[in-house]
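Usage example:
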Amino acid sequence: MKIFLDCIPCFVRQALDAARLSTNDKQIHEQVVREVIILAKDLDMSQSPPVMGQKIHRLIRKLVGTEDPYRDVKKQFNNASLRLYSKMRNYITDSGDMLETAIRLAIAGNIIDFGVNSKLQESELEKTISECLAAEFSDMQLKPFRRAINEAEEILFIADNAGEIIFDRLLIEQLPIEKVTVVVKGSPVINDATMEDAVVAGLPQIVEVIDNGSDGPGTILETCSEVFVDRFEKADLVIAKGQGNYETLSDVNKNIFFVLKAKCPVIAQDLGCEVGEMIFRKSKIFRNAVDLVKEAE
Amino acid sequence: MKIFLDCIPCFVRQALDAARLSTNDKQIHEQVVREVIILAKDLDMSQSPPVMGQKIHRLIRKLVGTEDPYRDVKKQFNNASLRLYSKMRNYITDSGDMLETAIRLAIAGNIIDFGVNSKLQESELEKTISECLAAEFSDMQLKPFRRAINEAEEILFIADNAGEIIFDRLLIEQLPIEKVTVVVKGSPVINDATMEDAVVAGLPQIVEVIDNGSDGPGTILETCSEVFVDRFEKADLVIAKGQGNYETLSDVNKNIFFVLKAKCPVIAQDLGCEVGEMIFRKSKIFRNAVDLVKEAE
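Running the assembly step on the lines above writes:
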């Protein structure tokens, strides 16, 4: 997905929100805004929005002089999500369709996105869980998803945020975990999950976890490590969580299922949905094994 | 009121909204955004926000090549407000305190602000009227206001927007109209009222109406005509409608009553109120005749 004109004021607002969350120094707030404007002046609109996000958050970390301004909120939402874990697991066990319920909960967890909302309160988690369990949700994609996870030999699950990764664990537990590798960010950016958060979620005990070598708030393949890109290319199914991974991977030629809550009007427009809607959708070029065999013939 | 950092992304968003309302040409939308970013790069934060607004809307008019991109919405909201006029007048006549009810309605009319909301629908007018008639409203300022309009010899009523000026007429009718001069903009900017709109409201039949010689979305004294500035200096009471006039006059050493709906978080912060609140408030330095006599002694 490319940068929309609407993203430009949003970059500046996000940068200011992030600067305020990172420091009380008003001079730094102003410096961040001024430098983001300079970045925006020469913006290449053909990039995906997280390319700009990566630059903005590098700038904030440099100006604030801290490696991870979101450390505290990541911890807070990891803890809050862990407290909800057993309850959510029961929702899944008690449901008619465990996979569907796990997908709904993984989407609910995507509310923990400090790029979109830097003022998120813990109290919104349970509300979002209830909403996502009750909301209308097309099961049209569930059958192809079941088939894809059965057919795939290597599944990459690209996680999104801290806290959310605990919701993701519930979905990962419903997958054929012997085939699953979970991917986290190489280093901190916004509240995106890194290896530390995967460990808090207990993921390394049940699946392989790797990092993508990047500090991009999405999967900007050009800035990822060779090791990750190699795994990405080899995987025959990718499950990509959240807006940043949708923005950066929606035009990539790969079998991907996108799992997210559409939280911004531009992404909702790109997806053809309403803001707030639950998204569980194949990439445009998705081809299953039967298609591939046909193409080879 | 000075520019807050939060105003900067808002300038860009407003410019994009205004460009979209003015033309369907996407190249112009992008050009507007890019040029507003260049303006923002060298922004003098000690100015009031409408100084930037004036530059932005000059730019849009130049790029779109039209003198008044808001002509249609101004007509639309003049007509919609005229249709509500008799009904609103009855609300005033039937009320316990006619002046208070007229102030409430004048504040309701301030919802017609395309700088803040370029997607305003006519249907929101009646809803806002009902809300403003019912809302909690401190009458603490009513007594000093009654006294000020009685004591004053020359009252300037600085109008804000088209459509809204018909709501304003209801308040003007409750004032000692022989002392009142209504002020409109010198030329079009956003949906601000010009002489044409004052005529639609039938104001020249009941009071003197002058223009301020400026295309600033507020009262930027440095860009107003000498004639207006002279009248402004001579007036012993100013009634200033709307956000733009608050932003540009809040630090001016003058007896002013501000009458507006606080529609943006930054103005609400400056006023110490909540977004959406009805504001009817004296300027900080307001001095009535008794104070002036005391000072002279």
